[in-house]
Amino acid sequence: KFWNVNEQHIDHTNEHILEAASLLKKQEVVAFPTETVYGLGADATSEAAVERIFAAKGRPADNPLIVHLANKEQIKEVVEEIPEVAHPLIERFLPGPLTLIFKSNGSCARNVTAGLPTVAVRIPDHPVAKALLEACQLPLAAPSANRSGRPSPTSAQHVYKDLHGRVAGIVDGGTTGVGLESTVLDCTGEVPVILRPGGVTKQDLEAVIGEVEVDGALDNNEQGQPKSPGMKYTHYAPEAPLWLIEGNLSFFQHQIDEQRRNGNRVGVIASQEHASSLSADQVQTCGSRQDLRQVAEQLYHSLRVFDPEKIDVILCETFPKEGMGEAVMNRLAKAATQKISQP
Ligand code: TXA
Ligand code: MG
């Protein structure tokens, strides 16, 4: 089922929302928009419902899911305790693109947390997600609504392409705002640790609670065991191989030309500042280098644009790892098969 709630004023009494909620109550899986990316939701208290998420996505069973809640009061119902440090974060950033990891009280199904003693919770800030959570009165386990390994969906069309026929329904609420997933913050230790950079930046967090750490395994895929199990898999990958090009414009153009001399059709993802200076078979702009939030918003769409085209390799520029650039480069590094730097 495909419901379009895009143009409507939405709340939990909307007929499409009620229909989607009734499927969720029957242990079905339904995709819905959040302010970050589309999620694939199921009743977090039902092992059978959650199993359907893993099956639809082809997701490895050892990768735990985020539990989505309608409001702050519900956090207490799934965690053992809320540590002191988390209170100002909840106050300041929720609802919003921040996922917090606490000790679980065991009330969610075992496969939600993949057997871990902790649980990830998030309160999405999107009218459709809110309406659905209120209508079904359930905590919803929801990973991004893509096939495992693919870029996360920022539109209902992306979800449809990856999952149609594999889910009970898709709620179309238009394109998502943030464009990259929530920041995952582990609050179970002395100092909170960022396990995945995302919609709320390190600077945003530090402005509220002082020092936060970054999981050491984030930047090197090979060494160290990432604490967030999901970070160890190939992720966000378009169909054609993606190469990151780090260097000036003439170095970038040289890489394009070399590929084309080898008979490859080349797609390019570049900022609006650089796009018009580059010549390739197809050039996709992804926002301005002056506004990395714009780049974040457009990134997953840009990665999917070449899928239906006959493109052999995608070359993409790199961005400064500042503010949202941290999350942008984290996703690009995971999506890319290699990086070529100007000597
Ligand atoms: O913005 C988002 O967070 C989106 C929307 C749909 O809410 N959801 C999302 O879910 O990105 P997913 O499943 O694609 O990513 C969840 C991440 C994974 O890296 C997973 O390993 C980590 O959160 N995670 C979940 N529970 C965890 C836990 N108990 N301990 C450590 N990491 C956990
Ligand atoms: Mg995901």
UniProtKB/TrEMBL annotation:
<dbReference type="Pfam" id="PF01300">
    <property type="entry name" value="Sua5_yciO_yrdC"/>
</dbReference>
<dbReference type="InterPro" id="IPR050156">
    <property type="entry name" value="TC-AMP_synthase_SUA5"/>
</dbReference>
<dbReference type="GO" id="GO:0000049">
    <property type="term" value="F:tRNA binding"/>
</dbReference>
<comment type="function">
    <text>Required for the formation of a threonylcarbamoyl group on adenosine at position 37 (t(6)A37) in tRNAs that read codons beginning with adenine.</text>
</comment>
<dbReference type="GO" id="GO:0008033">
    <property type="term" value="P:tRNA processing"/>
</dbReference>
<keyword id="KW-0548">Nucleotidyltransferase</keyword>
<feature type="binding site">
    <location>
        <position position="196"/>
    </location>
    <ligand>
        <name>ATP</name>
    </ligand>
</feature>
<dbReference type="InterPro" id="IPR017945">
    <property type="entry name" value="DHBP_synth_RibB-like_a/b_dom"/>
</dbReference>
<keyword id="KW-0067">ATP-binding</keyword>
<feature type="domain" description="YrdC-like">
    <location>
        <begin position="14"/>
        <end position="200"/>
    </location>
</feature>
<protein>
    <recommendedName>
        <fullName>Threonylcarbamoyl-AMP synthase</fullName>
        <ecNumber>2.7.7.87</ecNumber>
    </recommendedName>
</protein>
<feature type="binding site">
    <location>
        <position position="68"/>
    </location>
    <ligand>
        <name>L-threonine</name>
    </ligand>
</feature>
<keyword id="KW-0819">tRNA processing</keyword>
<dbReference type="InterPro" id="IPR038385">
    <property type="entry name" value="Sua5/YwlC_C"/>
</dbReference>
<dbReference type="InterPro" id="IPR006070">
    <property type="entry name" value="Sua5-like_dom"/>
</dbReference>
<feature type="binding site">
    <location>
        <position position="152"/>
    </location>
    <ligand>
        <name>ATP</name>
    </ligand>
</feature>
<dbReference type="GO" id="GO:0005524">
    <property type="term" value="F:ATP binding"/>
</dbReference>
<keyword id="KW-0808">Transferase</keyword>
<feature type="binding site">
    <location>
        <position position="144"/>
    </location>
    <ligand>
        <name>ATP</name>
    </ligand>
</feature>
<dbReference type="GO" id="GO:0006450">
    <property type="term" value="P:regulation of translational fidelity"/>
</dbReference>
<feature type="binding site">
    <location>
        <position position="118"/>
    </location>
    <ligand>
        <name>ATP</name>
    </ligand>
</feature>
<feature type="binding site">
    <location>
        <position position="122"/>
    </location>
    <ligand>
        <name>L-threonine</name>
    </ligand>
</feature>
<keyword id="KW-0547">Nucleotide-binding</keyword>
<dbReference type="InterPro" id="IPR010923">
    <property type="entry name" value="T(6)A37_SUA5"/>
</dbReference>
<feature type="binding site">
    <location>
        <position position="36"/>
    </location>
    <ligand>
        <name>L-threonine</name>
    </ligand>
</feature>
<comment type="similarity">
    <text>Belongs to the SUA5 family.</text>
</comment>
<dbReference type="GO" id="GO:0003725">
    <property type="term" value="F:double-stranded RNA binding"/>
</dbReference>
<dbReference type="GO" id="GO:0061710">
    <property type="term" value="F:L-threonylcarbamoyladenylate synthase"/>
</dbReference>
<dbReference type="Pfam" id="PF03481">
    <property type="entry name" value="Sua5_C"/>
</dbReference>
<feature type="binding site">
    <location>
        <position position="182"/>
    </location>
    <ligand>
        <name>L-threonine</name>
    </ligand>
</feature>
<dbReference type="GO" id="GO:0005737">
    <property type="term" value="C:cytoplasm"/>
</dbReference>
<feature type="binding site">
    <location>
        <position position="59"/>
    </location>
    <ligand>
        <name>ATP</name>
    </ligand>
</feature>
<feature type="binding site">
    <location>
        <position position="142"/>
    </location>
    <ligand>
        <name>L-threonine</name>
    </ligand>
</feature>
<keyword id="KW-0963">Cytoplasm</keyword>
<feature type="binding site">
    <location>
        <position position="63"/>
    </location>
    <ligand>
        <name>ATP</name>
    </ligand>
</feature>
<dbReference type="InterPro" id="IPR005145">
    <property type="entry name" value="Sua5_C"/>
</dbReference>
<feature type="binding site">
    <location>
        <position position="236"/>
    </location>
    <ligand>
        <name>ATP</name>
    </ligand>
</feature>
